[in-house]
């Protein structure tokens, strides 16, 4: 029935597209992708990196996802942690799983993001 994951949708406040671009493109190295013309009036912004697609949509009233989160796999968690710190972002550690090392950060809107490395 399910063939794959097409995208992840996260919420953002109205008018914060530039802050989304700074974080998702500038820090996480996603690339912005154009939204279909019929959706442009809704606000928000779409990104992708490899096969991973993230859509940020405007939600009013806005409430960040504090527990629910995407988990983005990275090649080297140590390199990512160093990269985040150069951008002034201090990742939060959690208990590693037997086959996964992981940290958490928040996007500019308070949405929880997990960055993980498979062992």
TrEMBL record:
KW Oxidoreductase (keyword) present: yes
**Transferase is among the record's keywords:** no
Keywords from the UniProt entry? Dioxygenase, Lyase, Oxidoreductase
Per the database record, which ranges form the VOC domain?
Answer: 4-118
Q: Which InterPro entries match?
A: Glyas_Bleomycin-R_OHBP_Dase, Glyas_Fos-R_dOase_dom, VOC_core
Top-level division of the source organism's lineage? Bacteria
Query: Which Pfam families does this one have?
Result: Glyoxalase
Which Gene3D superfamilies does the entry mention? 2,3-Dihydroxybiphenyl 1,2-Dioxygenase, domain 1
PANTHER family, per the entry: FAMILY PROTEIN, PUTATIVE (AFU_ORTHOLOGUE AFUA_3G15060)-RELATED
- What is the name attached to this protein's record? Catechol 2,3-dioxygenase-like lactoylglutathione lyase family enzyme
**Lineage start:** Bacteria, Pseudomonadati, Pseudomonadota, Alphaproteobacteria, Rhodobacterales
């Amino acid at each position: 029935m399910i063939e794959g994951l097409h995208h992840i949708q996260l919420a953002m406040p109205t008018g914060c597209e530039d802050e989304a671009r700074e974080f998702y493109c500038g820090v996480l190295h996603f690339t912005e992708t154009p939204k279909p013309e019929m959706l442009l009036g809704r606000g928000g912004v779409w990104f992708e990196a490899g096969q991973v697609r993230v859509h940020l949509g405007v939600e009013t009233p806005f409430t960040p996802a504090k527990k629910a989160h995407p988990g983005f796999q990275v090649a080297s968690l140590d390199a990512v942690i160093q990269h985040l710190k150069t951008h002034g972002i201090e990742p939060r550690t959690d208990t590693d799983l037997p086959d996964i090392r992981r940290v958490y950060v928040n996007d500019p809107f308070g949405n929880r993001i997990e960055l993980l490395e498979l062992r």
